[in-house]
Write a structure and sequence with these properties.
Layout (H helix, E strand, L loop, with lengths): L2 H14 L6 H12 L6 H18 L1 H15 L6 H30 L3 H21 L10 H14 L7 H11 L4 H30 L5 H29 L2 H19 L1
């Protein structure tokens, strides 16, 4: 991979991992427009490491509190909300893990086409817009409840279908359940930590088993760029989301989906 390819693809991954606009829809664009080859497993591992480090570092206080409180629940402590939140995130991650394990081959073979990505980009863009306009957005994460967390976890499993956007659909369900925009985003980002860790671990295992050549310079650069762009994305999204809402991202998704359809049909 050339340096410019590494830079662009890592930047796209870092930004679209957390914005509700679908990373898969964007990652097919450079290959379609410029004819770039698949970036390979090693690069996928690198950008997953970068985005994972970004979200863990940004929410380091919350993650630390949840880890301590979770161990406390194993000793019988039940009153700390951070411990409950840790359990919610653990259980809400299970659907995505099971769906990924059982459905990955079907998804790879049948659902990675530009047409599917265009359709899901449009469909879930409309749903995000509907939720942003119609839902009552006043709940805190504490009021979400275990059932609400599991509903968001089930939505995260659906996001394995390319074009859906993991952050997009989890924020959509969070809004529909009454979370404020900021809290829907925060819960989505916290829920992404085990999801990204699982995906990165799976890709790492595949890389080890394949035992192919690794471009360490491309991996290092890709990881750094993905980390920096993802960290900045989380920070500014949380600042702006209450001011601008979700509609700019909805409009962007609709334009992108129409553009992809035009590319497929044309």
């Amino acid at each position: 991979m050339s340096t410019i390819e590494v830079f662009i693809l890592a930047l796209i991954q870092g930004l679209t991992e957390f914005l509700p606009i679908s990373s898969s829809a964007h990652l097919i664009l450079p290959s379609a427009v410029f004819g770039w080859e698949d970036q390979g497993l090693a690069f996928d591992v690198a950008v997953h490491v970068g985005t994972l480090l970004a979200v863990v570092l940004y929410f380091r206080k919350e993650v630390g509190n949840m880890a301590v409180a979770w161990f406390g629940t194993l000793k019988g402590e039940r009153d700390n909300f951070d411990g409950k939140l840790a359990w919610w995130i653990i259980f809400a991650t299970i659907p995505a893990g099971l769906f990924g394990l059982l459905g990955k081959d079907f998804i790879e073979e049948h659902l990675r086409s530009a047409l599917v990505i265009a359709a899901t980009t449009l469909l879930f863009g409309f749903l995000l817009g509907f939720a942003d306009i119609k839902a009552k957005q006043n709940k805190s994460i504490e009021n979400l409840g275990f059932k609400g967390a599991m509903l968001i976890g089930l939505a995260q499993a659906i996001a394995l279908i390319p074009g859906t956007s993991r952050s997009g659909i989890t924020m959509t369900i969070g809004l529909m359940l009454g979370l404020s925009r900021e809290n829907a985003a925060r819960f989505s980002f916290l829920l992404s930590i085990p999801a990204i860790a699982m995906a990165g671990s799976y890709l790492t295992l595949k890389l080890i088993l394949e035992a192919g050549a690794v471009d360490w310079s491309a991996m290092g650069l890709g990881s750094v760029i993905a980390f920096a762009s993802a960290y900045a994305c989380i920070h500014y999204f949380l600042i702006l989301v209450n001011k601008i809402g979700m509609m700019p991202f909805v409009i962007y998704r609709l334009v992108l989906g129409v553009g992809l359809l035009w590319f497929v049909v044309g």
